Amino acid sequence: MITLVAVRLNGRTLAGAASDTFSGMPDTVADKHRVVILGGGFGGLAAAQTLKSAPAQVTLIDRRNFHLFQPLMYQVATGSLSPGEIAAPLRSILNRQQNTEVLLGEAADIDPAARQIILADGSRVPYDSLVVATGSHSFYFGRDEWREQAPSLKGLEEALLVRHKIFAAFEAAERLTDARARAAWLTFVIVGAGATGVELAGALAEIAHQTLRHDFHHIHSQDARIVLIDGAPRVLPTFPEDLSEKARHSLDKMRVEIRTGVNVVDIDADGVAFAGPDGREHLPSKTVLWAGGIAASGFAHTLAVRLGAPTDNRGRIKVSPDLTIPGHPKIFIVGDLATANGPDGRPLPGLAPVAMQQGRYVSKVIADRLRGRPAAAPFRYLNKGDLAVIGRAAAVADIFGLHLWGWPAWWVWVLVHLMYLVEFQSRIVVFVHWAFQYLTFSHGARLITGTGAPEDTLESGDEPRSAAPKGKPRS
Predict the structure, then answer these.
(1) pLDDT tens, N- to C-terminus, the chain (475 residues)
(2) Does residue 353 form part of some domain?
(3) Residues forming the active site
(4) Cα 440-444-447 angle, rounded to 5 deg
(5) Into how many domains does the chain fold?
(6) Cβ-based burial of 374 (10 A; exposed 0-12, middle 13-18, buried ≥19)
(7) Domain residues for 226?
(8) Within-domain flag for 117
């Protein structure tokens, strides 16, 4: 779902009773076609930017006041980047678009008869065309109780929680004398071997083997055990097999243990249980991280109930070829919330390029309708390729069918991600940080934030070290 406390781009504040209808732009443009966009992610932002010259008033509503560059979330979780370097205020991005306003809010319901979005505070925002891009959340295959023990990387708060867990684990291990308890704290399990899981595993390996190797007196951070688990037969299952094998080879060199073809059956405070061809196994671990599947945001259920929108088994809306809800030609669904088939007949992946192309497409459809132009052709996704970075000068890339790995793929990955960062200053800052990190192996943002000190994570059976270390630190 999306909260509204609405602050207008022109400085006016949404006020009045909760039942009031918020009319949007000033009266001078009130007669224009009203386009409401729910969600400021890749799809929603692309839609808003594409409508900058359209004869319409555009209202973008999001529960956050910033656009988040999701593909680099794992770098926040591993201390490579700070949150502000992958996030940009929506108002700053869109402040030059005279026909666009931004509202901070959460869409709670829809009134299709009145063509209004009902916000969490009861306010109503009218629309003539609606673009829903509220995104997705982590999917735990019906085991939502695992979420507490195995956080994912779908939100900035979750990324900071993961960062806390990773670096607090090393601190907890430093204080323990029992070898078995220490091993559990130094075992990191990542569930899901797609691009996020592979990139997270590679970053964790670099932290353990390089960044922290001189930082502790009583443990060797290099002893950390990083285990990557997936039910698929290989890592990066959506990539070509040769690139998947290259990625596996790079992970092997970084001493990441890969357990494919096994399914997680339980996650608790003591570790992970999984089953495979060799039977069931329990892996003791105090740090389990989730990089599994995704499911549609809660607003998809609202659309299914209110509009009869068809959904798939993960709650995503099955859209028409023009990305509208069947029977509702003024309501468009883009990004992770939509399930649409590609040229090969298979559902399109939940990737940023898909959402961006869909956002631009629906904006063109809306603009063409307003200008009386013929209906656009059905949406067709242009797949430019797939990228995944494993570590220092190690990556794989499938670019228009050209397979790259190692240094060439790593440079492609760097350039593409810098290019897609929204703000120019973020590109400069991130490039400088990456260059410094490449030369020094330093992860400068490895701060333990949030509630709870490292000692609070120790259990009653653990024996913390109480004496000060003697002699010189370990090298």
Answers:
(1) 333 333 333 333 333 333 455 545 444 444 789 999 999 999 999 999 999 999 999 999 999 999 999 999 999 999 999 999 999 999 999 999 999 999 999 999 999 999 999 999 999 999 999 999 999 999 999 899 999 999 999 889 999 999 999 999 999 999 999 999 999 999 999 999 999 999 999 999 999 999 999 999 999 999 999 999 999 999 999 999 999 999 999 999 999 999 999 999 999 999 999 998 888 999 999 999 999 888 888 899 999 999 999 999 888 999 999 999 999 999 999 999 999 888 777 889 889 999 999 999 999 999 999 999 988 899 999 999 899 999 988 999 999 999 999 999 999 999 999 999 988 888 898 998 888 887 777 767 778 877 654 455 555 456 565 544 444 444 4
(2) yes
(3) 199
(4) 145
(5) 2
(6) exposed
(7) 144-292+386-457
(8) yes
Amino acid at 21: T
Task: With 0.85 as the threshold, say if the pTM is over it.
Answer: yes
CA distance 231 to 276: 8
Tell me the helix, strand and coil percentages in the chain, rounded to 5.
35, 25, 40
Q: Do 161 and 242 have their domain in common? A: yes
Which residue in 226, 221, 222 sits closest to 251, CA to CA?
Answer: 226
- 134 and 255 assigned to the same domain: no
- One domain, residues 154 and 130: no
Provide the 10 A C-beta neighbour count for residue 338: 28
